[in-house]
Structure formats: structure tokens, C-alpha cells
Amino acid sequence: MEEKELIQDQGGSILNNPTFYIALVITVAFVLFGIFFTDTAESWMGSVFSFMIEYFGWSFILFVSIFLLLILFLLVSPLGGIKLGKDDEKPQYPLYTWFAMLFSCGMGIGLLFWGVSEPIWHYMWPPMGEAYTAETIHIAMRYSIFHWGFHPWAIYAVVAGALSYFSYRKGLPMMLSSTLEPILGKKGIDGGWGVLVNVIGVFATLFGLATSLGLGAMQIGNGLERLFGIASNEVSWVVIVIVVTAAAVISTITGIDRGIKNLSRINIVIALTLLVLVFIFGPTLFILNLFTHSTGEYLQNVVHMSFGLDAAGAGTEGWYGAWTVFYWAWWIAWAPFVGTFIARVSRGRTIRTFVVGVLLVPTLVSIVWFSVFGGSALHEEHFGAGGIADAVAESEAAGFFEALSLLPASQLLIFVGMISVAIFFITSSDSGTYVNGMLTSRGMLNPPYQLRVTWGVIEGAIAAILLFTGGLSALQTASVIGGFPFMILMILMVYCLFKALYGEMQAGSLPIERARIYEAIKDLKAEGKTDKL
Q1: Which of 422, 440, 458, 477 could form a disulfide with 45 if both were Cys (CB 3.0 to 4.6 A apart)?
Q2: Residue 284 · residue 455 · CB < 8 Å
Q3: Which pLDDT value is given to residue 254?
Q4: How far apart are alpha carbons 275 and 386 in whole angstroms?
Q5: % of the chain with per-residue pLDDT over 90
Q6: Is residue 457 exposed (0-12), middle (13-18) or buried (19+ Cβ within 10 Å)?
């Protein structure tokens, strides 16, 4: 069946899709609970989160490292030559456009929010050693890169790779449940268990994005206050959420090939411009030295950091639970959204190219980003007048603009940074509505714009309401808690993916490079030109 026909066939069944209604009811119920019982919600969520960190923190550390090892195995094994699509398919998007979209969706906004705040936090509260020392600068950079390097992108690669393979190679719908087809069967992916998997994906995407949108509104509000003196408070944050949501809805109506694609390409240029300006105006030599040193320390210590936990109570005072375990749970909670969107734009690439683009290149960008922004902030805090640590301790959202305000041409840098933050949030919101649209329309690659608009409006409304009522922290905690059940699903995804890949290899379905050689040999034999072999 052609894609157009498939879309038309699925379109008529959207109203009968239980995923949409179940996800909607759960979402509304949770938001109402957060509005009217804010203190109770925060208390309950906090208790569940503390229990998860204490008793299951080890599982996040262990399995995320296993995910990374398996993705690296796909990079170097013969399985990497298998294409995410038919053997003769070409990539759907050019390399630059593809990377711009997956980066804007996957982590761009996080780097802007945490690029200064996280290194400064580790400088104030390191996992080892004494705070506010020269050695702590190196520790702060090492762990900042670790939290934004190979491991989080391996989490995304697991979901995106499995979904791309089963959707484009096996012809299944673009639904998270499709990745479990070897277990559930083709009928089961749309049955009860399949609906449950997809509802978890919708829930995680919607709440993760609403939380991110709320935090982003606070960051943009801080920038507006510095530039124009507009008070950064609940009213201004809600107005910002409304404006960003409206822009995202307009973008989603235009579709991926116009809205997300063009905004992502523009934003990569803006972000690179900001990066270069901070590199030039900041402590350039210190940044270069720190980049070199931090890259070496990260690569040298990555195994130790990957399995690090304070099992004997060596005095880290909950650092691993507050940072590494929290981050891994947060990335996993974001994986349904980011993984599904990356899968949507990755058709036609080999698994090997996919891993390079989704794992290695973003890690290099993260190292450069933290070296420039985190390095500038750490230099000012340790060798200069300071003040950034106080701003970060008061609000992580203020750290980025506080660091920019201490550099030459600060007004220009803050303005460029604010524009970049806004566009990153628009693209994240837009891509999130696409993901929820696909998951609640039985995997349509281009879900009806009415469905996308519905999820976009709901997402913005959740962020605005919880910002105004003070329930955003409960929502953030709930999103992270959702990482544990989805980690179980990811373990099953990995099993299903490798089972299908090895099954394909054993069945003789060769990757395109080897298949062409095989066909050439057959042609030479048929023509009697065996001497050419």
C-alpha cells in the first residue's frame, strides 16, 4: 500500500483510536490534581522520586551504560550496514538539515539552559574534592560533558534506531509499540499492550515538553528583564508561553518541511554565531586549554563515571542521585519524544551513519559548547569578580544571561541568546506536537494538523497553568519518575531490535554494499566472464 493510501486509511480510524482519549483523560486528571492539590502533588511526587532514586538508581546507571555499549557495537559491527529503509532508498533530508533538526529537537534548548549553570553548580558542589578550587574546575567540566555526551544520545539512539528500523525497514506504523513487534506480534502493537506503550509515550512527551516550556519561559523572562526591564514573574512567563505556543502551532500547521526544517537550520546558524561571539569576547586562550584538557579527562574517565555510585557513603551527600541518576531518568523520560522525532527524519540512512550522526557528532558539539560557555563562566567565577554562582544558586535560568552580561557587547549577546532560546523552544514544541500526533493517529507520518494543533495547545496550557499555580516542580518530578517504566520498555526494545537484525542477516538479506557486490558476481558468471572475478 502506498504511503498516501496508508495515511488515508488510517485517517478514517483516528476517532476510534483509544490512545488519544486515554492519554487525554490521564493528562487532564493529572493537571487538575496539580492545580488544586499542589502541595499534596509535590509531596507525593517527591516521595516516589526519592524511593526510585534510593532503590533503583543503580539500574539507571547500569542499563544506560549497557545501551551505550550496544549502540557502539552497532557502529562497528556488520549490522551497521543495514539501511533504515529499503536497500535502494536515499536519505530523506540532506546531512546538514537532518542534523539541525535532530539537534534542535534533542538537546539544543538544554545546552542553552545548562551550558553555564551546570558547570557552576559542580564548581560549587562537586562530587569529590573541595569546592571553589582550580581542580574543581576540571571536575565540573568533566561531569558536565559526561551528562551531555555519549550516554544521553545513546538513550535517544536506542529508541530512534529501533523505531526507524521497524517502521521504515519492516513497514510497521510509526508507533512506539511497533518496536516490540517481535514480542507483541503485528496485531498486538495496536492491542491493549500496544496502547499502553503508546500512552506512556504521549504522557512522557507532553509533560516533559510542558516542563521544558515552563523553564524556558523563565529563562526568556530573565533575558527580557535584563534587556528591557520587564519584570520576570508569573504573568510575564505565562505571556511568553502563550506567544511561544502560538508560534509553534503556526509552525506545525506548515509541516516539517517548512516549519521545523527551516527554523532548525536558522537556529543552528544563530547558536553557532553566539558560540563564536562568546569564544571571541570571552577568555579565548583559557577556553582552548580547557577544551583540550576536558576532552582528555572525559575520554580517560568515562568508564569510571559511567558506573559511578556512592555505594559506601564516601561523603558525596546525594550528589549522584541529584545529578547523574536524575539526568539518566530525565533523558529516558524524554526518549519517547526525541527518539520518535529523530526516527521520523532519519529514513534512508544506514545504521552506521545514523549512529555517527546521533551519537558522535552531538557529543563533540556538547564538548565544544560547555568549553565555551561553561569555560567562560568558570573563568569569571574563579579568576574574575564572580557573581555567576550567586545567580545560579538563586535560579538556574539566570545563569546563562548572567554570564553573558559580564562579557563585552553583553546586550548584543543577550539579545542573540534570547532569540536562540525562543526558536529552540518553538522547534521543540512543534516537534513534540508531531510526535504526539503520530502516536495518537496510529502512526501516521503526517498526522492531521487538527490533531497536532490540539496537542500543541494542550501542552502550552499545561505549562501556563502550572507556572501560575506553582505546580511545575511536581510535573517535572512526575516526568522523571516516568523514566523508570520506560527504561523497562527500552530493554525490551533493544532485545527486539537485535533479534530482528540478526534474523535479517541470517535470512540472507544483505546490506546494500555487500548486495551490490553479490549482484555483480552473478552478472559476471552469467556472462561467462569468470576470469574477471
Answers
A1: 477
A2: no
A3: 78
A4: 21
A5: 40
A6: middle
Q: Please name the helix (run of DSSP H) or strand (run of DSSP E) that holds residue 521, with its range, or none.
A: helix 512-526
Q: Which range marks the domain in which residue 259 is found?
A: 3-532
> What amino acid occupies position 235?
V
Q: How far apart are CA 342 and CA 346, in angstroms?
A: 6
φ, ψ of residue 83 to 5 degrees: the values are -95, 145
Q: How many CB atoms lie within 10 A of CB 403?
A: 31
**Residue indicated by cell numbers 539518566:** 328
Q: What is the pLDDT of residue 516?
A: 52
Task: Output the domain CATH number for residue 352.
Answer: 1.20.1740
Report how far Cα 403 is from the mean position of its chain's Cα atoms.
Answer: 25
Give backbone dihedrals phi and psi of 350, rounded to 5 degrees, phi first: -75, 160
Positions in the chain short of pLDDT 70: 1-16, 106, 315, 469-472, 474-475, 508-533
What pLDDT is attached to residue 520? 60
Count of CB atoms within 10 A of residue 394's CB? 11
Q: Is the distance from CB of 379 to CB of 123 less than 8 angstroms?
A: no
pTM score, whole prediction: 0.87
Tell me the C-alpha to C-alpha distance, in Å, between residue 202 and each of 48, 250, 288, 441, 491.
Answer: 21, 21, 42, 11, 19
